[in-house]
Each structure stands twice: as structure tokens, then as C-alpha cells.
Structures
1.
Amino acid sequence: MASLYPGLAHLQTLNHFPMAQFTAAACPPFLDYDNRINLHCRELNVQISKRILDLAPHTVILSAFWLHYYRESDVDRLLGESVKFLRAAGVKQIVVIGPLPLWSPSLPRSIFNQYKQDHSYPPPRYMTRGLSGESAGIEARLQARTRDLGATYVSALAILCGDAGCLSRVGDSWEEIASFDTMHLTVPAAEFLIARIFETHKLGQ
């Protein structure tokens, strides 16, 4: 979620809405969750839940490395508990942003490998080299669960990907690469994604 924040911050400067970011590395938006990577995840989410009760936001956006948590946790149950809490806290709009494109070993490496093959610069706007199908594999499941819970589902893959693969860049400059590692978005890509989400979904209304 933190890699999406620059896109929200940019939009905030244009539309002047109140916003707060509550995220921590390796800590999904689940209340009943312990993490061997982040030993403070449960404690952090308890504190975040208290802040939500205090702030009474209209809209809460949830995002995570969903694929990782599907591998090790009961995401359907945990997400349901989070949505139940948010609804009880008076949140009017609960938004789940689906998985981002996953690159192996990373998007920069995939672009380099593509360049070694055909010396193309800039790289193809959409690429399949290095693109994992695992994110697409959980999309339908997460979308169905979100809708069952009465929350709003936003497909990042529908915005960032197409028949020719997923975006390797959102502009012609090397600074506008879409991801700086396996999946975290760069600032230009976050601005691109969030702008298109707000164009197609009435978030905050």
C-alpha cells in the first residue's frame, strides 16, 4: 500500500481531501494476524484500528501483497474480519485494491534481459518477459470475496495490464519505469494507477 501513497498524495494536492496513511512493512490489513517477519504487526494494527475509530474516515483503502498472504493465511476470513470492523466503525466506503503485476526476478532485470535480446530502447510499453501469472491467479478469488463482503474491488491488473502484457513504463523516460523491484510501484506509476482508479471509481463519494 505504501507504494501507492505517492499517487494518492499527488491527487490530494489537486482535490484537497483529507488523508492519512497507516502502513507497515510485511503487515497486511488484518486485525487477528501474527507475522514472523514483522513481530509488531498485530500491535500496530490494533493501534491503527483505534485511530480509525478516532478519525471516523468516510473511505478506507486496503492493499497488500495479497499473493504472499494467500500462501500462508486464511485471507478470506481475515479480510472478512477487517471489513466487519471497518463497517462497525462507520466507514462508508471500503475499497480493496487487488494484486499488482509480479515480475521475476524484477522488472528492471526483465527490461535489461529484453534489451539484451533486441536492443530496444525505450523498452516495449507492455511486456510479458519476466511477468508472473500468479497475481492474475488470485484476482478472481479476491474479487469475489470482496464483493461478497459488500466492499468495492479495484483491479490494478485491469489498469496496468492488457493482451500484450503489463506496463513496463508509464512514459518514455527511464525514470518512468513501472516498478523498481518485483512489484512495488515507482512514483510515476503510482500516480498513473491512482489517477485512473479515481477516473473510473467514485472513491470518497
Note: Residues 2-99+133-161+187-200 form one domain.
2.
Amino acid sequence: MEYQNALSKLASAFGDQLTTVKSVRETHGQGEGHQKNCPPDAVLFAISTEDVATAVRICAAHKMPIIPYGAGSSLEGHVSAPKGGLSINLSKMNKVLALNALDMDVRIEPGITRKQLNQHLRDQGLFFPVDPGADATIGGMVATRASGTNAVKYGTMREQILSLKVVTPTGTIIETGTRAKKSAAGYDLTHLYCGSEGTLGIITEATLKLHPIPEKIAAGVCCFPDLESAINTVISVMQSGIGISRIELLDVLSIKAVNGYSKTNHKEAATLFLEFSGTNAAVAEQIETCKAIANDFNGADIEFAENQEAINKLWHARHQLYYATRALAPGKESITTDVCVPISQLADCMLETREDLTSSGLVATMLGHVGDGNFHTIILFDADAADEIAQVTELSEGMAKRAIAMGGTCTGEHGIGCGKQTYLEWERGNAVDIMRSVKTALDPDNIMNPGKIFRG
């Protein structure tokens, strides 16, 4: 009855912007991960910060859960509504509010996607570098502290944010920073909300740093006789100080999957996908240095593309690996793992993981944003087979424990959501109690995306 009162007030306030249609609710109850679909009681399509603030105040008065929703591309159950409540869809809030080309910053609404933003910026000679693969919304990328293929050169979302506008659990609207490139004014609220996964408030605007579009970009592939040779090449490239933009590693099965799905003809071997950017002279020097290092580790079939169409085709195939892996065993469910370790530990971590995957007998591909020690596996399993579910759980837990033991983390970019709460406790120990204290202080009624990050 309490939620019905809230829904009635929401309907009066928003009219057609609010829906309780079952199919829409179910769409908003699950991202792209394997978690159970938990639909909200209603979905609000917000069009302004004031909409969000009004909805939050109504929900807060009735202690009704609130779940922010962007593109639904998250993998750890961030958008599910295990306690019901209101899903606030921010995709219609997709405007560029202010572009300051001279200062290289931009103010945007959270529903704009990274591709939409870069399309808007293209004529200014600027771009936003964070590329998690999916065309996610910027708000969702801030909330999950996303990164991706460009992080090795440009950093993650954390490094790109200057300020956020946030609606707090009471419906208050706050600004966390300024357009200045640095500040020592009080607590760093901007980065408190970055990575908070919607559990502390709802991001309704963001001011972001931008970067000049490089004079030249060149991308290429290089094959290796085994994973260890490829990883050792990565370590040497990073230690050499080459200004590489992206360096991705796909194992043999990944290449086979990509070839089948994207109709490419890459050699089926452990393969590095590389991208260099900068001036013409710098890129040429970087390529030659990288080739020399790769040759030291028996790299072969080194091919580079320098026109944008060929580069886009190369990276498009790489970004399709999730769907390519699913195509290896149609009808199977999938889980995507995500760990990050110091680069000196990368070879051991990936090789031991590959051994575990092979021993399990399950179909699983492996890829890595290896320049910063982050890698994933995509494991396929039969959701109706208890033994396969148990194997997947064992593999995922084993990866997390191994990464943590090596000084790494259980998630380099996907976040905790409702899928890695135990892993967070393994990694952070008593520090999780401090996180809970922050959550309780800001959201005492636990209405902001409950069931995420923390157990219980």
C-alpha cells in the first residue's frame, strides 16, 4: 500500500512520463549480465534535473526504492530492482549543455552516450576518450567508474570528471565541483559519487575534460605463438614508455569467435590489437619500436592500418567479442569476469586462469586491456545444469581470489553491483564498514539502488 501511495503521487506529477506497463518494467529489470530479472514497480522517463528531484522527494516520503537507468549495458545487475520501486530512465536527458572548446571541457546531461558526445565534438577537433565497448550513457559510465580500451593512455572516468550535479536521497540538488582543473576545497565529493553505482544519489549533469583529436592514428595486430609471449611483449612495451593508446590481448578461442562472427580472417593465435596516436613522426617511431619489441618475443604477421575506415573495422570486430563468444554456443548463458592486477603479475594471472578455464571443459574466451593489467573472461554455461553453474561460480571466485592475492582487484571496470559483493569484502575487509557508514549517513532509509555494492 505504501508504494501504491507513492505511485499515485508520481502519476499525478508526471502523467505519461510514468509507466507501469509490464514489458517496459521487465526491460528495466536487467542489464546485459546473467543476473535474474527484477523489474521495478514503475518506470519514469525523466527529462530534467527537476523531474528527478521531484520523483526522489516523492519516493523518499514513502521509502520507495529508486534505481537509475541509462542504456542498460551494465554487467553486474546494477539496474535490477530486487526490492521493487521506481526506475528512473535518464536516456531522454541527452543534451550537450555547454561546450568550452578553449578550456577543453564540456557540460552534458547523463543520458547522452559516448558515441553521441563524440559526434557532437568532432567538428571542434576534440573528443572524449573513455571507451568501454558498449555505447553506454555517460551517466552510467560515471556511476560505475567505467574505463575500457583507451584507459592505458587517457585513464578511466575518474580522471575525466571535473564536477557533477547530483540529486541526493532527500531530493536536494547539489554541485560537487567546478570547471577548474584542480581544487583543494573540502571533501572530494565528485569522486565519491563516481563509482557509487547509484547508491548515494542520481547524477543529472556532468562536466568532463576533453582531449585533442590526435594528428595521426594507426592501429594494428600482431600474432604470437602463445599467451606468455604476447603478455611479455605488453610488459616490455609499457616499460619502454611508448605512448600507446590501446593494447588489447585476445586468446586463440577469442580470435576464432571474432572471425566467425565478424567475418574477419585473423590468424588463430594469441593476438595483440594495438593503437598508436600522436604526430606523424611520433606514431612512426612508436610503431617501429613496438615491432622490434614484438620480434624479440616471436611476434609475427604484424600488420598496421592507417586509414580511419580500416581502424574502425579492426576495433569493431574486437568490440563484438561478447556477442561472438555467445555465438559459439547458442542458447547458453554467459558470465563476464573482470579482474585487474599489477602488470608484473599479469602473465601469471592470465596463464593460471586459462589453465582453469581449459580444465573446466566450459567454453570460455579471454581478452584483456592488458596495458593496465585488466582482463576478462566470457564463460558460457547451461543455466539449467547445476554442475555447470557450480563450475562458473568456482572459476569466477578463483579469479577474484587470485587477483586479490596478487595485489589486484576483483573488478577493474564492471563494478560491484549485486554480483561481486562478497568479492568486495575479500578485497577491502574492514574498509567495507566505512563504505557502509557513508551509505547510511547519506541514505539512511536505503532507497538509492538498494541491494547493490553491499550484502543485505
Note: The chain is about 40% helix and 20% strand.
3.
Amino acid sequence: MFAPPASVRLRDITTELLVPTLALSLHDAAPRVVEFFERVLGPRPERIGRLTTLVGQLLMPPRERDELGAEITDPDLYELTPFEAFPEDVCAAADAVLETVGSLPVRLSELLGVALEDSPATAHLVALLALRAFSPAVESHLRAREESPLLVAWSDGMMLPAALGRGGEAFGRVSGRPRGVEGPAAIETLGFYGDDLLLARLDVAAAAYLAETDAA
């Protein structure tokens, strides 16, 4: 009856608890935070093991474990048929045409004319190999320490003859017909567009050695 009335004012969590706690050091704030959460979360009953359950677990035989794991089943494999864009005879004929290129520059139009005597597909492959030589892998050639000369191609701005086609820079499009199509019609259907590149074989290893010698 004579007791003072109880205070029912709620605490401001942010301004009265969180902000002052953040201003403290970790050593001073840790026990206060732990005590706060222990009071807020309420009592936690201790886990007491049952003797009957404990005895049953102790008397249970150990589980058998397979160290190698589950059995692996062999997958169903089937033989893949490799896709060849050009037959072996076409590749051999194109290599034979490019083998004629030496240290002196040769026009691509001359090589295409020789390749067309074999087949349009051979000329198509020669044109693609010329495109690869337009940006040769010089660094890979040197790292592999290959001693064979490297086929390189460059443009001096001369266009391909009208019989082979007209177009822009360094082969905007290269197309061809299957092997066996011959004659003037085959030359028109190939449609080589771009510059009449110059091709030559460069001894990259010797050039690199001379450059290192001059630098030393």
C-alpha cells in the first residue's frame, strides 16, 4: 500500500543502450553485451543425457565404412567421328602450293591461280592459310624454338584481280565450292575479296639472333 508506484517507462534501445555501448572499448563492452542478452533471452535449460540412451549408444556396434566409396559405374562411351572441313588430298595439295613460297615475296593471286588448277577447295584452303599468315604467331614460334622458316603475309594495298573478286581489306569474305567444280565459273563463285597479299618465308630464329647480337 505504501510502496512507490512501479516504473513502466520503456528504454530507448538506440540512444540509451546501443550508442553508449558503441562508445565503449571491446574489453568494457563485452561483459555488458553478454549480460544483456542473457537477461533478454531468458533461462536456458541444460541438456542432461539419459542413462538408457547413453548405454544403448555405447553398446551399438560400429558402423561399417567403405574407404573407397560407392562403386563407380563405367560410362557409356561411343566413338566420335572427327569432322574434317577439307579432305586429306585437299590439305596436301594446299601445302604443296604453299611450299613453293620461299624468301622472295610471292603474290597470293599467283598461288590461287596454281591452286585452282587442282580444285576450288584447294584455293579456298590456300586463302585461309594466307589469312593465318597475315597475323603469324611469331612469339609462339620463338618459344617453341622452331628452326623452320615462318610463313608471313602482308599487304601493300594492291587489290586482287577482277577474275578472283573485288572487295576491301585483307579478305572480308572467303568462300568456295566443293571439290570438282572447275572452269571460269568456279573462279567467279570462289569470291575472294580483299588485298592481293604478299607471302614469304621468314627465318624468325635467325632474325631474333641477329637482333640480340646487335643489342649486345
Note: DSSP finds nine helices and three strands in the chain.
4.
Amino acid sequence: MPYNDTKGIALLSTTAITDLGTASETTLYTVPTGYKCILTEAWLETAGNVADALDVTIGQNGAETDFVGTTAGDNLDADEDVIILKPVPSASPATNKIYAAGTVIKFDVAVASANTVAGVVYLFGFLIAV
């Protein structure tokens, strides 16, 4: 389980998604005991063309949208295409969450791709000792 005691942004997890063509949830990370976590971004890499539809979200179990709300990934049309998933800043900064120890962070394929395509989610953030 990677962590960074220097409180710098680090790769928290690398998670294979077996099929973006099936609506499903996949656990990305569980905040370790003794820490709280602030997520900064996730990257979704695909192993092929997702075709004309793909909506994904990321957040704590039960919500699955409190970090990244519904995000279209239909522009992932070739092997090793990558999109960044993160709250979008605006004139009013996006609100982020601090996740307590034991919180399970999930990736949700809300609207499945028309094709059977595997992917990988790289989740980034930092841990704060409590």
C-alpha cells in the first residue's frame, strides 16, 4: 500500500478495469488506518475504442460521485488513449473531500461503452497522518 509521509501528491493505486462495456463499480483504494486522504486526480487509460458512449464517476462507496461527477469518456477511441478525471475548477473553486481512514474509493462505469474494452485507472492524492 503506497503512502507518502511527506504529504506530497503520490500515486495511490493502479487498478485494472476488466470491461468498460459493462456498468459496474470497482474499488480503487481504501484509506489506510491512521490517515485521511485528499484525492487530486485520476487518469483512465483504455485498451481500445470505447465507441460512442462511456460515462464514469469516482467517489466514496455509496456516493461514487463526490470526487468526480459524471464524466464522458466517449473520446477514448484507440489503445492507450488517456483522459484526466478531476473536479473542474471555475470562478468558484470546486469543493473537494477529505476521506477518513477506512473510506473505500470506487470507480463507477455509469453508462457502459458499446464495446468490450479494458482499462486502467491511476488514482493520485496525498495522505495526512491523523
Note: Residues 9 and 58 are 18 Å apart (CA to CA).
